[in-house]
Design brief:
Blueprint lengths: L4 H15 L1 H12 L6 H8 L3 H8 L2 H5 L1 H16 L4 H16 L3 H13 L1 H24 L9 H21 L6 H16 L19 E5 L8 E5 L6 H12 L2
Antiparallel strand pairs: 1-2
């Protein structure tokens, strides 16, 4: 058998193991106890070496919140690349975070219990909450209308985080079945309050055609004013555009 075969065939298996690592670690911590569980124990539970565990997850505190690190990375990627309107981009991104965090229901519930039992984990969770809020606020500041009050980004970002956390708690108490759908409904109600301060979505650029510059009149309004819409190729000169507009205005 070629020497490279074992290494190559092990890579997909290890990748799958690492992807499942946080859930396996959380289950062990809940079963054995947070204080009694060592990093070596967690590495064994995940199925990797101690060095690989530390390289991939860090400390045992880090592995508990590994899903949040992934959710934050995916949220930032979504907000930086989406073509959705600012409001829908935020709603979709927030629902995606919740969907990721509860994709393994058992692990999500065990993580909640672990965090409630240990003060240092509560403090770590609070820091992560602020990280989400900063991501939302940064995106909002870049997508607000020029006349938006200064408090809009901070309050909308805080509302997104608060609604997400409340919906997650409701789901943990079995008060809601489809948590992402419930969250989306609530977020749209809140987003309506901020709608006037959000910049409109930028329409996609259209491909330039080879049509020459031309202008088309629009039906006059009741006040007697007249509007002319100019359609022109990007290669048209300013003189050609002005000539087409002038021709219509002279009719």
């Amino acid at each position: 058998m070629p020497a490279h075969t074992p290494r190559d065939s092990a890579q997909p298996a290890q990748a799958q193991t690492l992807a499942q690592g946080p859930a396996a670690a959380i289950r062990l911590l809940a079963d054995r106890g947070y204080e009694a569980t060592t990093a070596e124990d967690l590495a064994d539970a995940v199925g990797v070496s101690r060095s690989t565990f530390f390289r991939r997850f860090g400390s045992k505190d880090d592995v508990i919140f590994a899903d949040h690190d992934l959710a934050l990375a995916e949220l930032e990627a979504h907000l930086s690349s989406t073509d959705l309107s600012p409001s829908e981009a935020l709603i979709t991104g927030t629902c995606n975070v919740l969907r990721l965090l509860i994709r393994d229901p058992e692990a999500a519930r065990l993580r909640f219990v672990l965090v409630r039992q240990h003060e240092q984990l509560k403090e770590r969770e609070l820091v992560i909450t602020h990280r989400y809020q900063r991501v939302f606020a940064r995106y909002l500041r870049a997508n607000l209308a020029a006349d938006a009050p200064g408090w809009v980004a901070a309050t909308f970002a805080a509302a997104l985080v608060a609604l997400h956390n409340q919906t997650l708690r409701n789901w943990l108490r079995d008060d809601v079945d489809d948590a992402p759908a419930a969250l989306g409904t609530q977020l749209r109600e809140v987003a309506a309050f901020y709608r006037d301060w959000l910049a409109p979505a930028v329409p996609p650029l259209t491909t330039a055609t080879s049509a020459p510059a031309e202008a088309q009149p629009v039906l006059p309004s009741g006040s007697g004013s007249r509007v002319v819409v100019a359609v022109y190729d990007t290669g048209s000169s300013p003189d050609e555009v002005l000539a087409a507009v002038a021709a219509q205005l002279s009719h």
